[in-house]
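Structure ticket #2291
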Amino acid sequence: MSLSMYQASVPVFVRGLSNLRTILGKARAHAEAKKIAPEVFLTSRLYPDMFPLTRQVQIACDVVKFGAARLAGLEAPSFPDTEATFDELEQRIDKTLAYIQQVDASQIEGSETRVVNVKLPSGTIEFTGVAYLFDFVLPNLYFHSTTTYAILRHNGVEVGKLDFLGKLSA
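Resolution: structure written out below.
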């Protein structure tokens, strides 16, 4: 059995963002239970030169939104980076999930060799579709999701590895 580009992308994106949404829900509940202002978590960073939690979530959403769009040859919607509450971050995840789930598998299949250009502050990087997915999109999704998890765990939110991994199936 071979793994298609669609199977390696959209379902993985959905799982990652859904798990991230669950982790944010636990953070919200923890803040409410301990009477901690939500901003304490939302503005926290692991280190002063790193992005705060809100930006980590925004980037996780953007990387999969653009990932699905670029692999499918589509224009991604623009989401302004204005979220400042748990509600707004959860809505950002929901909008992103709704977008990527409407991308049809037929639009992504065959994108292994599609040329994907990504503009970064340091310049433009050209990828093949498969390199873009495995060397850029997935590592970025995991990095920013893990960083969000680590910020919350560092601040005392009771999340564990299974919250990050989500429901496991054989």
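Closing remark: The chain has one domain: 5-106+129-158.
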